[in-house]
């Protein structure tokens, strides 16, 4: 019996389908199916019954899962313990970040790891905060850097930075409604009268703005819903609407003169945070990657990429 076959079986059983398990393990679905089939042939029993919505454990599959899940957890624990005591940090660490954060933070992390800890392999996933929160809660990610994470008793949430949000406007307004400026600021309630281009509710920014509008009893005028920051910025540059974002997400366009940011009144902000599961195994590799993330947050804040108040203190 091969370890990889048993591991494949456990993942398919837990995810209740080959497609979801393949995505979680980052392997081809066909390879996963071959592993499970090989295990069934070796044991001489059928472990799953297949149906249109996924798979269901057979009686034999249920019996095997009861034994295999504990065995796999113990094997992973042994591996983590050995890696934790290695002379040099080594092993795989998976992180997830929002697109804006990943663009600047990941290259710096990889550079520092190659320089100081070449035996650490960094696995990176990119997505909106809503998706990332689910990945880390399900155990698919070791560390996550995201905005406004939802409180969860099983997660450790470390605030990193409280970052102001701005109305983002094109330099050439064209036919867009005139901004109701007051002392250089746009009133928050004006978000109900301006044509907005925003991401869907999977993005923490959209949820934040919807809650704000509900609290102040107005409705957002969302003329286009787009899940892609590059596309949103391109539409705003073309004069098709306004959006709301932090300086970090638009600093290139602001410096190039195609977009400008206008403060909101009262101040509106969101919080960048480091998130991980409380009960996950702590390896030296994980400890070093966490330390480097905190360190680089400070470096990028000092270099002006992020604006706002630092919420975490760390040494060099």
From TrEMBL:
Signal sequence bounds: none
Organism superkingdom: Bacteria
Sequence ranges assigned to domain HTH lysR-type in this UniProt record: 1-58
InterPro entries: HTH-type_LysR_regulators (IPR050950), LysR_HTH_N (IPR000847), LysR_subst-bd (IPR005119), WH-like_DNA-bd_sf (IPR036388), WH_DNA-bd_sf (IPR036390)
Sequence intervals crossing the membrane: none
Cross-referenced Pfam families: HTH_1 (PF00126), LysR_substrate (PF03466)
Keyword set, alphabetical order: DNA-binding, Transcription, Transcription regulation
Similarity remark: Belongs to the LysR transcriptional regulatory family.
Name of the protein: LysR family nitrogen assimilation transcriptional regulator
Species: Xanthobacter agilis
């Amino acid at each position: 019996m091969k370890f990889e076959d048993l591991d494949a079986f456990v993942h398919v059983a837990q995810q209740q389908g080959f497609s979801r398990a393949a995505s979680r393990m980052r392997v081809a679905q066909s390879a996963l199916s071959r592993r499970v089939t090989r295990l069934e042939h070796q044991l001489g029993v059928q472990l799953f019954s297949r149906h249109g919505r996924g798979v269901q454990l057979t009686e034999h599959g249920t019996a095997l899962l009861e034994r295999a899940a504990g065995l796999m957890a113990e094997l992973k624990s042994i591996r983590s313990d050995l890696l934790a005591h290695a002379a040099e940090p080594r092993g795989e660490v998976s992180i997830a970040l929002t697109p804006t954060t990943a663009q600047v933070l990941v290259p710096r992390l990889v550079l520092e790891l190659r320089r100081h800890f070449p035996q650490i392999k960094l696995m990176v996933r990119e997505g909106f905060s809503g998706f990332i929160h689910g990945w880390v809660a399900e155990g698919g990610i070791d560390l996550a850097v995201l905005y406004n994470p939802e409180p969860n008793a099983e997660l450790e949430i470390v605030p990193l930075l409280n970052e102001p949000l701005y109305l983002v406007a094109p330099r050439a307004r064209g036919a867009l409604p005139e901004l109701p400026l007051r002392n250089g600021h746009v009133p928050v309630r004006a978000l109900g009268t301006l044509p907005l281009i925003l991401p869907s509710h999977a993005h923490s920014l959209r949820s934040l703005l919807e809650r704000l509008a509900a609290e102040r009893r107005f409705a957002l005028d969302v003329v286009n819903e787009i899940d892609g920051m590059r596309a949103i910025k391109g539409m705003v540059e073309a004069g098709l609407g306004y959006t709301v974002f932090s300086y970090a997400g638009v600093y290139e366009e602001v410096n190039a003169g195609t977009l400008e940011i206008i403060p909101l009144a009262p101040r509106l902000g969101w919080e960048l945070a480091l998130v991980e599961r409380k009960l996950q195994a702590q390896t030296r590799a994980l400890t070093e990657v966490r330390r480097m993330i905190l360190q680089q947050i400070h470096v990028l804040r000092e270099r002006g990429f992020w604006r706002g108040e630092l919420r975490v203190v760390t040494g060099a």
